[in-house]
C-alpha cells in the first residue's frame, strides 16, 4: 500500500514553462484526501516558492537533500561549512569557472545569476573574501569537460558532485541527498520506504528512485533513469505524474 508519494519538480511535476496544470493540482488534492502524504524533492531552494502552491504538500526536500521539512518542521539538515566551501570556490573562480554558494536563500556568485536564471532575485556578486555563514548548496556552470576534472581534483572529501543534463554541477554535503531527506520525512509520518512511490527524470533523482518501494520515470527522463525505474509515465508536459496517480492510486481504489 502506498502511503507517500515523492515528486521531483523541474521536468517532472513542473511543465517546461514551470507551470502546473489545474488537472494535476486536482489529482494531488484527491491523493491527499485519501490520506496519502504528498512530498516534493528538488535541487531548488527558495526559488520553489513562486512556482508551486506549498499548501498541496505535506513535506519537501530542498537543495538536493540539504534540508527536509515535514509539516513545516525541519527534520534534516546537512550544510557545508564556510571554511570548506570558501577556499574551494575561490580556487574554481581563479580557474575561470562560474560558481555560487546558496546561503539562506541568497546566491553568492562570481557572476550575475539573474542573467542565467531570470527568476532568481536574491544574489550577491562576490569574490568570496567577505562571505560568511554555512552554505546549503554549491554549484558551477560547466562549459567544457575539463572543468569537471578540475572540480573533482580539488573537491573536498566531505562533498560530492552531481552533474545535471543542463551542465549544472551541483556540489553537496555527502549526506545531503534526496533519499536521506525523504526517508527522514517518512520516519516523521511513520511510513516505511516500501510504502513510498517516487517520480523523477534526471541523475540527481537516481538514488531516490532506488531507495523507495516504487519508482516512476518520466517519458522525458534521461535513459539512465528510465533503465532503473519500475514504471515510465507520460512526459512532464503531458501531466505524466497526475495521470499515473489517477490510474494507479485513484481509479477503482
TrEMBL record:
> Record keywords: Membrane included?
no
The record's GO CC annotations read:
cytosol
Question: What InterPro entries does the record tag this protein with?
Answer: Cof, HAD-like_sf, HAD-SF_hydro_IIB, HAD_sf
One Pfam family in the UniProt entry: Hydrolase_3
Record Gene3D superfamilies: 3.30.1240.10, HAD superfamily/HAD-like
Output the Gene Ontology terms for molecular function: magnesium ion binding; phosphatase activity
Question: Which of UniProt's keywords are assigned here?
Answer: Hydrolase
The identity of this protein, by name, is: Cof-type HAD-IIB family hydrolase
Amino acid at each position: 500500500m502506498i502511503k507517500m508519494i515523492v515528486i521531483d519538480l523541474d521536468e517532472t511535476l513542473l511543465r517546461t514553462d514551470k507551470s502546473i496544470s489545474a488537472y494535476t493540482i486536482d489529482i494531488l488534492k484527491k491523493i491527499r484526501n485519501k490520506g496519502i502524504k504528498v512530498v516534493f524533492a528538488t535541487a531548488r531552494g527558495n526559488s520553489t516558492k513562486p512556482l508551486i502552491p506549498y499548501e498541496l504538500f505535506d513535506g519537501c526536500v530542498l537543495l538536493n537533500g540539504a534540508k527536509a521539512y515535514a509539516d513545516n518542521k525541519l527534520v534534516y539538515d546537512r550544510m557545508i561549512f564556510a571554511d570548506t566551501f570558501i577556499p574551494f570556490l575561490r580556487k574554481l573562480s581563479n580557474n575561470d569557472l562560474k560558481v555560487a554558494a546558496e546561503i539562506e536563500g541568497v546566491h553568492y556568485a562570481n557572476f550575475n545569476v539573474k542573467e542565467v536564471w531570470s527568476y532568481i532575485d536574491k544574489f550577491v556578486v562576490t569574490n568570496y573574501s567577505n562571505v560568511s555563514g554555512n552554505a546549503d548548496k554549491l554549484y558551477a556552470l560547466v562549459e567544457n569537460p575539463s572543468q569537471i576534472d578540475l572540480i573533482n581534483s580539488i573537491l573536498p572529501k566531505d562533498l560530492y558532485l552531481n552533474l545535471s543534463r543542463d551542465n549544472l554541477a551541483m556540489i553537496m554535503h555527502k549526506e545531503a541527498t534526496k533519499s536521506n531527506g525523504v526517508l527522514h520525512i517518512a520516519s516523521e509520518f511513520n511510513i516505511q520506504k516500501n510504502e513510498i512511490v517516487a517520480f523523477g527524470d534526471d541523475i540527481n533523482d537516481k538514488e531516490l528512485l532506488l531507495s523507495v518501494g516504487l519508482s516512476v520515470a518520466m517519458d522525458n527522463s534521461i535513459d539512465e533513469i528510465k533503465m532503473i525505474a519500475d514504471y515510465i509515465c507520460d512526459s512532464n508536459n503531458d501531466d505524466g505524474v497526475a495521470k499515473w496517480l489517477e490510474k494507479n492510486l485513484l481509479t477503482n481504489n
